[in-house]
Amino acid sequence: MRWHYIPVLMLLLAFLAMPGAAQGVKYLYGSPDLSATIAGTNEFAPGAETGLTVVISNSGLNTHKIVGSSLVTPDDQPNTAKLVTAALKSGDAPFTIKTDPQFLSDIRGGAAATATFNVKVKDSAEPGTYVLPLELTYTYLREAEEYGSDLLRYNYQKKTVTLPLEVRVTPDLQVEVLDIRTESLNVGTEGYVYLTLRNAGHDTANNAIAKITRNGASPLIPTDGSAYIGRFEPGDTVDVKFKVSVANSAEPQSYPLDVAVTYEDYEGDTVTSRSTTIGLPVGGKIAFEIVSPKLTLSPGSKGVLEVTYKNTGDAPVYNAQARISAVDPFTSSDDTAYLGDLAPGETATARFEVNIDGDATVKEYGIDSEIRYRDALDNSKISDTMKVTVALKPREGTIFTNPVFLIVIAAVIIGAGYYIFVYRKKR
C-alpha cells in the first residue's frame, strides 16, 4: 500500500462531511392540480343503494427547481395537496349522500387517493345524466422563505375546488301492486292470490314474468309462483294469479309476500326488478269438534255410536268422511261414515256399529276419530285427531235381564220340552 495517499484521502472525507457541502433544492413554481373520476360503473337504477368509489388524482407539477449548497430543502413540495378532505354533494341530482366528508391526508404530485361514499338513488328518479359535485379542500405550500442558512418560513395556502362527477340513472321497471285478492287462503291449506300489477317505471319490459317469493320465514310458501306477462310497457296494468300454501304453524293474520318481475331490459339483458312486499290475510285453520254428548254402552253388547261433528274452522270442506279407530275392548266392521260438505259452523252426524267385549272393564274410553276431506282447491286433507268418549256401565234391571240367567232359563226350558216330548211318545 502506498502510505503517502492516506492524507489526501482523509482530506477528501473531511470535505464531504462539512455541513456546507450538502446541495439544497428549492422549487420556485408549482401547485396541486386535482381531478376526480368514478371507479367502476357510473350507471345506477332508481332505488339503488351502493358504494360509489371516487379516485382523486394529483397531476400538479413543479416547473422550476434551484439546486445550491447554500439552500435549505423544504419538507413539502408546492405540488403536494396536504390535508385533503373530500365531500360529495347531491346538487340537483336525485341522489341522497349518506356518507360524511372524508379525510384523505396528503396527495403528492403524481399520486392518487380513493374515497368511497354510500349513495342512494331516489325511487322516483327520472332516467338521464346528472352531476354530483365533489368538493375538495386542501392546503399547499405556496412559498418557503429562507432566513439565513438554517431557517425557513413556510407560507401555506388553503384552497377549495369543486369537481363534477357525471352519473347516469338508467330506466327500469318498478312494480306497483294496485289490488290484492285472496281465495281459500287458510292455515294449513292452499289458496289463490290475485294481483293487479302496474309498471310504474320507465323501461319497457319484454318477455316479462311476474313472480312471487317467500319473504324470510313467512308461512306463505308459493306453490305456483310464476305468471307470464309478455310485453309490459310503462303505465301498463296486468292481472296475475298465483297459488300459495300456508304452513300449519301459522295464525289467522296477515303475512308478507314478495312480488317482482323478471324481464329483458332496454339493452336486452335479463334482469329482475326490485321486490315489492305485500301483506296477505290468512284465515283460521280448518278444524272440527265433536259436539255430541258422551255415549254409554255396556260390556258384552253391540251398539251404535252416533257422533256429531261440527266444522269449527273458517273455510268449507267437501266430501268429508269420518273414521274411528276401534281398539280393545271395541271392535267394528263399520268404522267409516260419510258426512258430505260442511260449511263453517255446520254439523253432521255419523253412525258407527261397535261390539264390546264381555270382560271389558267398566270405565270411560276414548276412541280416536279423524275426518278426511277436500279443501276448496280439491286437495285431500286429514283433520287433527279427536276423541269419542264412551262410558261402559253394567246393564241395569232385574235378574231376568242378566244374560247368564237368560241362558240358564233357556237351557231349562229346552230340556223340559225335550223331556215332555219323549215321555208322551213312550205312552
Automatic annotation (TrEMBL):
Keywords from the named record: Membrane, Transmembrane, Transmembrane helix
InterPro entries reported for this sequence: A-galactase_NEW3 (IPR018905), CARDB (IPR011635), Ig-like_fold (IPR013783)
Domain Alpha-galactosidase NEW3 intervals: 298-373
Transmembrane segments: 404-423
Residue span, CARDB domain: 170-264
Gene3D superfamilies: Immunoglobulins
A matching Pfam family: NPCBM_assoc
Protein name: Uncharacterized conserved protein
Protein source organism: Methanoculleus thermophilus
